[in-house]
Amino acid sequence: MAPIQKKSKTKKKTKKFKKHKQVSLVPVEPRTSETDWWDSFWHKNSTVPGYTVPGDEAEGFKYFFRVSKTTFEYICSLVREDLISRPPSGLINIEGRLLSVEKQVAIALRRLASGESQVSVGAAFGVGQSTVSQVTWRFIEALEERAKHHLNWPDFNQMQEIKLGFEASYGLPNCCGAIDATHIMMTLPAVQTSDDWCDQEKNYSMLLQGIVDHEMRFVDIVTGLPGGMSVSRLLKCSAFFKLSENGERLNGNVKAFGGDVIREYVVGGCSYPLLPWLMTPYETNGANGVSVPQSTFNHKHGAAKLLAVRAFSLLKGSWRILSKVMWRPDKRKLPSIILTCCLLHNIIIDCGDTLQQDVALSGHHDSGYQEQCCKQVDPLGRTMRDNLANHLRQ
């Protein structure tokens, strides 16, 4: 699901791409020279102090760009037509040649993966700061349009596979995903500061909510909303909430175990309300604690919920631009940057690619933030949770 604030721009963007397709192609570097950028980059950056670059060149490629060369070529194929059919506006390297599509994609991926300044990224490729800025934004616009099929709500067959995955791994029948949210921190100029954007930890931030499947793919996201909002409020502002409440999502076949009926649902932490389609854990701080069935439910629920936590840790660890404090970002463009990183996260999984083990953030994806518990309990949600606990006990 695309960021909620970008719906009004979709049609305009589509028209823009169609218009540019009519422009005559701009010549780029000959095909035979397209490997030159990597040879030059590797020679220049593989031994730079401060980097722990693997000695193997293939692993070194992943270190810098987070993807294998095969996945890199696939990403290039998605954006190639848009990058070569739009006037380059001076996108040249220090030798005066137009940048190849491959070098443009590499610059953008390195900027998103490292979170380093545009000056530092430009120096690594022998281009200027303005070129890094222009190349990265052109790439984001193109991927946002051309890779949208990598982030969709699952169809019937895909959902069956997801439910089987959750049940096989965690014993949770009819589970369709795990939900969580994270803060993307930023600094804002004084004229743009407000309580809306100042979150519970006194940071200025933008929220990202994501639902992931059993393979930690994002199947729905919402972003663009200010960090001062609670996670439960963010949920209620999302299209996912409205669709689920109206019976247009999580409306597949129910399962019956004896007299207990279990419908489709997602799992989330205590910061979310307990709803018929959103399962949260039993409270454990009561005088009598929890029963054995409730404890069993909490254990399995918690393990499944960790998929979303791990997915966000991988997302922000892989695309470190999201884990660093962004310096005065354009709040209208930031949702596109976030969406692009989520698309890249999914593309890596869809291409069967693997990340290096130390890529994920070592701590929690929202380090320093305390989970705020939501006290809202829907009676039908309570019954549904009890049905699940009874099933797990048996």
UniProtKB/TrEMBL annotation:
Subcellular location: Nucleus
Keyword Nuclease assigned: yes
Any one of the GO CC terms: PRC1 complex
One Gene Ontology molecular-function label: chromatin binding
Entry coiled-coil feature ranges: none
Keywords: Hydrolase, Metal-binding, Nuclease, Nucleus
InterPro entries reported in the protein's UniProt record: HARBI1-like, HARBI1_dom
UniProt-listed PANTHER family: GH03217P-RELATED, PTHR22930
Name of the protein: Protein ANTAGONIST OF LIKE HETEROCHROMATIN PROTEIN 1
Lineage: Eukaryota, Viridiplantae, Streptophyta, Embryophyta, Tracheophyta
